[in-house]
């Protein structure tokens, strides 16, 4: 048993060289936020839905207008995600550098566009399917999450194999 535990600790140290606590704390906050939203509204929390509800402020398309009754609290949730990340960056991890990356702007933009298309094709985002859908034992979400993971792993392997760098 001790050897197994030592191996487990060694694997965790390799996978999470900066520690695992901030991931665990972040996961607890995500779970708490999702639970509060679901208990308070009966609506599963998914980030792509929150984006669509925000678009209802500036668009008259019917697909966005369905969110009018609940869009105010959805916008507060979305802003909370951004503000929470900013607070973390400023208070907990200032030594890591604020909002820096070596990735070229056009790659970030293209990645964002592809993610947006993927959320529409997949009928939801990773947070909606991964946190809420799997948590509610949705078979469609299990398939979605498995697809997200396999495509992400395959893409990462392909990008590494062809030598693409930021």
UniProtKB/TrEMBL annotation:
Keywords assigned by UniProt, alphabetized: Cell inner membrane, Cell membrane, Membrane, Transmembrane, Transmembrane helix, Transport
GO cellular component assignments: plasma membrane
Membrane topology per record: Multi-pass membrane protein
Pfam families to which the protein is assigned, alphabetical: Sulf_transp (PF04143)
Record's keyword annotation contains Metal-binding: no
Residue runs in coiled coils: none
Stretches that traverse the bilayer: 23-51, 72-91, 103-122, 134-159
Chief location bin: membrane
Localization (cell): Cell inner membrane
Keyword set includes Lipid biosynthesis: no
InterPro entries: Sulf_transp_TsuA/YedE
PANTHER family: INNER MEMBRANE PROTEIN YEDE, SULPHUR TRANSPORT DOMAIN-CONTAINING PROTEIN
Designated name of the protein: YeeE/YedE family protein
Species of the source: Natrarchaeobius chitinivorans
Lineage: Archaea, Methanobacteriati, Methanobacteriota, Stenosarchaea group, Halobacteria
């Amino acid at each position: 048993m001790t050897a197994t535990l030592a191996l487990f600790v060694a694997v965790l140290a390799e996978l999470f060289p900066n520690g695992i606590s901030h991931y665990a704390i972040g996961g607890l906050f995500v779970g708490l936020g999702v639970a509060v939203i679901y208990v308070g509204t009966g609506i599963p929390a998914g980030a792509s839905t929150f984006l669509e509800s925000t678009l209802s402020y500036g668009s008259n398309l019917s697909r966005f207008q369905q969110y009018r009754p609940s869009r105010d609290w959805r916008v507060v949730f979305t802003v909370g995600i951004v503000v929470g990340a900013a607070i973390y960056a400023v208070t907990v991890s200032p030594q890591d550098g604020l909002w820096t990356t070596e990735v070229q702007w056009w790659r970030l933009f293209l990645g964002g566009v592809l993610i947006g298309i993927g959320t529409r094709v997949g009928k939801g985002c990773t947070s909606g399917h991964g946190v809420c859908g799997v948590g509610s034992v949705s078979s469609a979400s299990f398939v979605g999450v498995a697809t997200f993971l396999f495509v992400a792993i395959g893409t990462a392997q392909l990008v590494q194999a062809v030598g693409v760098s930021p």
